[in-house]
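Thread title: Can someone regenerate the structure for this chain?

I was given the following input by a collaborator and told the matching structure tokens would be attached. They weren't. Posting the sequence so someone can regenerate them.
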Amino acid sequence: QVQLVESGGGEVQAGGSLKLSCTASGNRAIFHMNIVDWYRQAPGKERELVASIPAGGSARYADFVRHRFTLSRDNSKTTVYLQMNNLTPEDTAVYYCNLLNHWGRGTRVTVSS
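Best answer:
Regenerated them for you:
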């Protein structure tokens, strides 16, 4: 079993930056061996995949965040980081991380124009 906790959300103005964290606890081997995904869900919309980072290898990004968001992981801290730059109001959503169908409760990001 693994538990996920997201943090780092908040309110920023358009063009600003935030860094989200997703920290896993419990079975560390699950974190070390598997891909971690970030999703987001905007009000009234379906949850969508933002970025993924495998256990070893390069992160992959949705087109709408490529070149603005950067995903990294620190296996020693069982934490994945999502650096979000040049935010727009369209990035307003609750952001969730996912690991083998385990979900955190999300962290809210609000971007004002």
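The longest strand covers residues 18-26.
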